[in-house]
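Next comes one such specimen:
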Amino acid sequence: MQQDVNAAQPLPPLRQAQVAHTEQRILAAATELFLADGYVATTLDAVAKRAQVGARTVYLRFGTKAALFKRVVDVAIVGDAQPVPVHDRDWARPARTAPAADERIAANAAICRQIAERTGPLFAVAQQAAAIEPLIAGFWQQGREQSRQAQAEFWSGMARDGLVDPAADLDWMIDTAAIAGAAETYLLIWRMLDWNLDTYENWLVAILTMIAKASPSRTP
């Protein structure tokens, strides 16, 4: 089959670096403004001014404020702008590969702690924005589904490797862990109890350990 002569060609390395640097400046500026002023008050023009780039650059790169905010949150979750999902990160791999159940549980809790540390305040902004911005509400729901999928992969791996009771209700384990590790749960803990991150992480370890030892039967 003949190659499409109109297919987009990769940018030269220098141009790639320039584009990446510009995006970093935009994301840093957007993060500052979203956290300081909230979602509603932040505008793409204000982000462009803070980042010292042209407004057209921001509009062409992101299109909408909702898309920019999603990119800000996505980068905060993984820690950088590289297109590598959480489960493929070096700091997340022990949750799938550690030989013992307690090591995997500790790694799972550490992942939640890292994400909360980088993204907790942005989750608070997202939760408020979701009430008025349908696109953010959609992204928020997508985040819930991705969080549950991450727990599904974790507990399925635990079961596959013989680290939980074979008679355990896997769906119950996944659902319960997904609630414990949800962004809403962290925000409730943060606002209601004012726990620090160490306390939050230790709590998650305790909850996940109890889940791993439980073997409830699914109620019809």
In short: The radius of gyration is 20 Å. The chain has two domains: 13-63, 66-213.
